[in-house]
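for the recovery benchmark. tokens below, seq after
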């Protein structure tokens, strides 16, 4: 799968989760509501850190989360900005760009090196992991979880994939 399509899926899955979370937010105990927002905020802060590293600009954060917990609306805006940037970037990234080695310091001060391709894969898996953690908070409280599978996304965005082989539309 192309990175561009994978990041389109990531943006869709993030939006699905935030929409369901916001609709049911008042039904969550305070500690779970805070965890829901903070774990997703962590993913967008990490996205920002690695975007800065890819483009060689100063990082906007000095930790892997913010001190203040944003509102879901603020979180949605920041996540959408980062997801849009990643989608646009991956749409035009060349094979040579994906193989480019990026040297940086992790938040803990340790030195790191990853190719752009490895960074992008990290952001996809990292985001998926933490979406699952946030989704579990909904499930543990008897609330609706998103049906944010890749197959659902592909069938919604490419409806012809639901057709049986040999049938006409």
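predicted aa per position
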């Amino acid at each position: 799968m192309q990175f561009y399509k994978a990041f389109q899926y990531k943006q869709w899955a993030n939006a699905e989760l935030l929409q369901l979370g916001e609709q049911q937010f008042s039904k969550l105990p305070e500690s779970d509501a805070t965890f829901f927002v903070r774990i997703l905020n962590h993913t967008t802060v990490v996205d920002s850190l690695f975007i800065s590293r890819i483009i060689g600009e100063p990082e906007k954060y000095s930790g892997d989360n913010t001190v203040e917990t944003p509102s879901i609306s603020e979180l949605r805006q920041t996540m959408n900005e980062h997801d849009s940037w990643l989608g646009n970037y991956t749409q035009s990234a060349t094979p040579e760009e994906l193989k480019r080695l990026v040297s940086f310091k992790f938040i803990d001060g340790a030195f790191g090196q990853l190719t752009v391709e490895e960074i992008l894969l990290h952001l996809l898996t990292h985001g998926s992991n933490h979406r699952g953690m946030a989704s579990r908070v909904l499930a543990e409280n008897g609330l609706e979880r998103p049906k944010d599978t890749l197959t659902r996304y592909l069938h919604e965005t490419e409806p012809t994939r639901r057709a049986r082989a040999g049938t006409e539309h």
